[in-house]
Amino acid sequence: MRNGMQDRQWQIAAIALTTLACIASLSFMPNTNGLWPALSILPAWMAAAALMAAIFGFVKAARMRLDSPARALVAYLRDNRAHSLGVAAIMLLAGANMVGFMWVKPLLNYLVLFRADPMLADLDHMLFLGHEPWSVLSALAFPASGIIYHPVWFVLLIFALLMVASARPSPERSAVLLSYFVLWTLAGPLIHIALPAA
Q: What DSSP character marks residue 30?
């Protein structure tokens, strides 16, 4: 019973944060150019989550040396329908939150003037022992890095969320899931406002 209450508490907070992000961005958005591109992420997000869950379940069933991993996966989904739908709902809410963030992120650039930050420059200077970071790290750059970065980042993010969402309800799971929504909805934008150069 206590886990169910904690589950509801983080879910209510996550829904409120996602709604807040969407309403705030729609209220201050100067034009609607960014609405549809961000919304198009949601179907891809859910498809990626479903594919990853199927692959993970298939591999797990195969490692158990079952006669038919595919049939075992279908049976698991049928026998654990409520849990599976709960995981899907969490992934859908996280995807909606990402859409809200994708609406907020360019809005912050519009509302908060980008400026160089001496504090961050000094921190770079200290971390890289007096060298410019680009001069130290440029050897790691390669032509396709930008193309690889975003898809890999999204896949890792969705996979990590999927692992947490599929865990059984517990205080730790609730804390991790709530932290995800707080970081994307509040912490990220507030850091951007305070340190645009970051």
A: S
- pTM here? 0.83
Q: Determine what percent of the chain falls in helix, strand and coil, rounding each to the nearest 5.
A: 80, 0, 20
Per residue in 162-179, pLDDT tens? 999 999 889 999 999 999
What pLDDT, on a 0 to 100 scale, did the predictor assign at position 131?
Answer: 85
The span from the CA of 72 to the CA of 61, in Å, is 7
DSSP per residue over 41-94, as a string?
Answer: HHHHHHHHHHHHHHHHHHHHHHHTT-S-HHHHHHHHHHHTHHHHHHHHHHHHHH
Q: Which burial class, exposed, middle or buried, applies to 193 when counting CB atoms under 10 A from its CB (0-12, 13-18, 19+)?
A: exposed
In order of 2, 149, 157, the CA distances from 153 in angstroms are: 34, 6, 6
13-38 tens-digit pLDDT? 999 999 999 998 888 887 777 788 88
Crossing angle of the two packed helices 171-182 and 2-28, in degrees rounded to 10: 10
Q: Which two tokens stand for residue 62?
A: 């195969």
3-state SS assignment for residue 29: coil
Q: How confident is the model at residue 4 (pLDDT cuts 50, 70, 90)?
A: low
